[in-house]
Design a protein that fits this description.
homodimer, eight-stranded parallel barrel, 2 domains, TIM Barrel
Chain lengths: ~550, ~525
């Protein structure tokens, strides 16, 4: 078919799609406009094809490197069938006396990466061509195919009689940024595994591809380490009910993999480690009042060799448990007062020639930790604080920007990329900070590459991350706080900035997408007055 | 009775939210075995078995007291039986709670028995709630209750929650769940802001077009008569009044879709612009329509109060309309449109008075009108403390009763522990006589619906609304410290979560049983 040819030949250029975009706006949301985040390039028409769930099939193209038995795609077919036909099981009454022509979604991928994990450089590009009786979905990887299935599922709509349709469409799509993450904080509040899995579902709907698991912090240590079981048995809120077992962690990773989502673990140190101290004695620095220990503890003790031996063992375990090639090492908000109070730390400072500059001690610590993870073949991500006091971090370390208003983080983007380091932007998407009204507009209008710097510098922005810190969030309110506000950031990170520059045109599309989320059982809160055809029924 | 503070922390009455008025407690505790636990009626009780309110309350509270009973059959050895014996003075089992219904109760827990005495079944229901919150489990899952004496009654007679089902439709199930949670915090009025500009979900039997044309969807986004009856009857069993609001003359855009000639046609120059403003106050047909509508509403909703709204009337459309201007002239109102508004409201209040209903109106009505009937309640919704305190003074000085909502616009969210603001409100702290203070009949938590529907209603309401609940029920002096309230509210929030209410966390921490409904 000529469409197949057109797609596989890769001759579609961006210019071809700009005119059709303007036409589509008149068609309402039953077209590609209804897809969130907006695909990079598409044409669509009013020609529509009825879909009958009893004559609807997924299949593998003959040339596809992946064939039946491909875990990622086989499960995706099953998953998306239910998402495409949400009332199928309950609609036995919809008897089809005239069985429509069958419709086939034929998926072809270039690589058989069915049993692998998505990586930072995994292609998520896909081409989708919908015509009579058939949709052809072509991608380099299974991860791209999964993104394309998501797009297809959002294009299917029901008329007032409940019949399903999809419009004739051509899509060529790929993400703007390779890293599109969501951070969940399971230390300030424990999130049941089920809540994490539900978040992974919803992430896939918005094409997020990294789950940044801020798994431990000051308040609790829910990760059950096989090497150091005391960390959770003494550091979790409860040693049995408020932990993530190895099996829980594997379940999260494997569930995420099937959605094309990487799991990036964070074990933040040397600060934010209060809970670690409960199960690992001598790890934290004893604080002093005058010449005697006060009984309280500060950051990880950077002067003891035992600290680095412990960290090496812990990160060795973490490296083998989490398959992603990145580990987040934290490194933020280290309070120096306890280190200053401790005579052993002060003696060490003197011995090392650090003078009174505790940032040098912090740098010394982080350098050691980064070396540990480098030796384990993992790339490090650290919060921006590490850059602010340290220049010797390895070239490939990613700096994670979390501080300040636009002027502040734009300056930081300039500075860090000028030093040739890759950056990840989180500052504008601290979504745990709630306010009254449509704050999603702020998340939507972020311009991650709008800072002073060369084109090369701009390319060092690998993506962005929505952070849901847990001070006031647990499984009771996580979903309505995340969705659809995080979806605003998702479009910024996936779609072309010029095509999505108007927050007002995004509004009805996001409202429509939010209703899709609700229909899929996600407790996505409303953006403003109005209604969804199918309201949330899970009360 | 003097209250005596104890050192028992959350295991005793301190764990009861809102805090009872007077109590004594001890470390003496009694084991409770679900297989030897009974509710019963006292011999002298005016209500006996067959009392709908108490029979259903017994069943409901058994599950709340023993949340894991059905899933556990480990209670092999039978302890001594424990009886909760309820006695009430009045047989009001089949009635509806009223504004002046007593909610007072005395609860005495001793070995093998708890005696719960109340004037009304509504008081008994409040006492059962208290008892249910006093029962706790030890680390092995065994249930206990401590020896306790409680004498309790509400500080204010009106403790309400407003839900807005016009800006977003709330499925009936979401309303019922809210009623459950209201009872846990001893709220007693569900203010149902049922219609407004965006949609008219109330299916009127007299004017079916109002919802068939004015609802978001004529079938899926409406409240049928049967839905409304279900809400009222469910609320009744929890001792909760249902106060309907049909706000006019403003906030009525959706009414116009199903009732032609009801809204004022706005003019651009000398021609109608095609848009509509508030209810048209100059046509006799308007009042005929309202009389029929309120006649229906009066019979559907048993409460003796109706909320008539009356807020935020924009005069620009009235001003543009030549018929309205002619009427103004005829009536001698000059250019003062507040007089026209007053004229309209007076007519509506007279309609509901004739139907034997007392009116509640938003404070706007007081601000422009002095002739409203003595028994009308003014509902204060505007401003910061200085502003609403002045309004409290002014309105009570005029001898009118007031209901305070301004500090509890809970739909306004912000980052952090805003429940502290809801807790520290002092509803009677305004300049006025003791008599004036008594005219404050209570308060109301308002959850306006611009950004709220069934997806986020529960975590936004709870436990933030519970902070207001304690302010409205408990003694102000005993609950003056927001810091002492904090751990108690955290504990109560975990109880709500355990009962399946999606109550959000107040700060870092955990509950023994986290929310599992994801």
């Amino acid at each position: 078919m000529n469409i197949m040819f057109a797609v596989s030949s890769g001759r579609y250029t961006r210019a071809n799609f700009i005119l059709p975009l303007l036409i589509i706006i008149q068609l309402g949301l039953h077209t590609v406009e209804g897809v969130w985040p907006l695909p990079q390039a598409f044409t669509s028409s009013t020609e529509r094809y009825p879909l009958n769930p009893q004559a609807f099939y997924f299949g593998y193209g003959k040339q596809s490197a992946a064939q039946q038995g491909c875990s990622v795609l086989d499960t995706a077919f099953k998953r998306y069938f239910s998402l495409i036909f949400p009332d199928y099981s309950s609609a036995n009454g919809v008897l089809r006396f005239s069985v429509d022509k069958p419709f086939l979604v034929e998926v072809s991928v270039d690589q058989d990466d069915c049993e692998s994990y998505p990586q930072e450089d995994s292609s998520e590009k896909y081409n989708l061509s919908v015509c009579e009786g058939k949709a052809s979905l072509k991608a380099e990887t299974v991860w791209g195919a999964v993104r394309g299935l998501e797009t297809f599922s959002q294009m299917v709509y029901q008329d007032d009689f409940g019949s399903y349709f999809v419009n004739k469409t051509e899509i060529e799509d790929f993400p703007r940024f390779q890293f599109r993450g969501i951070l969940l904080d399971t230390s300030r509040h424990y999130l049941p595994v089920q809540a994490i899995l539900k978040t992974l579902d919803a992430m896939a709907y918005s094409k997020f591809n990294v789950f940044h698991w801020h798994i431990v912090d000051d308040p609790s240590f829910p990760y059950q380490s096989s090497t150091f079981p005391d960390l959770s048995s003494k550091g979790a809120f409860h040693p049995m009910t408020h932990i993530y077992t190895q099996s829980d962690v594997r379940r999260v990773i494997s569930y995420a993999r099937l959605q094309g989502i990487r799991v990036l673990p964070e074990f933040d140190s040397p600060g934010h480690t209060k809970s670690w101290g409960k199960g690992q004695s001598d790890l934290l620095t004893p604080c002093y009042r005058g010449s005697t220990p006060s009984g309280t503890f500060g950051p990880v003790n950077p002067v003891l060799p035992s600290t680095y031996q412990f960290m090496e063992k812990l990160f060795k375990e973490v490296s083998s448990v989490f398959p992603d090639s990145y580990i987040h090492l934290g490194g933020d908000e280290v309070n120096f007062s306890c280190w200053k109070s401790n005579p052993d730390v002060r003696a060490f400072m003197q011995k090392m020639g650090f003078g009174a500059d505790f940032t040098k001690l912090e740098a010394f610590y982080i350098e050691n930790i980064v070396n540990i993870t480098s030796a384990l073949n993992k790339t490090s991500i650290v919060w921006q604080d590490v850059f602010d006091y340290h220049e010797k971090i390895p070239e490939d370390t990613v700096l994670h920007i979390w501080k300040g208003l636009p002027e502040v983080y734009q300056t930081e983007l300039s500075r860090i990329t000028k030093a040739g380091k890759r950056v990840l932007l989180a500052a504008p998407w601290y979504i745990n900070h709630i306010s009254y009204g449509q704050d999603w507009r702020n998340y939507y209008t972020v311009q991650p590459q709008n800072f002073s710097g060369t084109e090369e510098q701009k390319k060092l922005v690998i993506g962005g991350e929505v952070c849901m810190w847990g001070e006031y969030v647990d499984a009771t309110n996580l979903n309505p706080r995340l969705w659809p506000r995080a979806s605003a950031a998702a479009e910024r990170l996936w779609s072309d900035e010029k095509q999505t520059s108007s927050v007002d045109s995004a509004f009805p599309r996001l409202q429509d997408f939010r209703c899709k989320l609700v229909r899929r059982g996600i407790q996505a809160e409303p953006l403003y007055v109005g209604h969804c055809k199918h309201e949330y029924q899970g009360v």
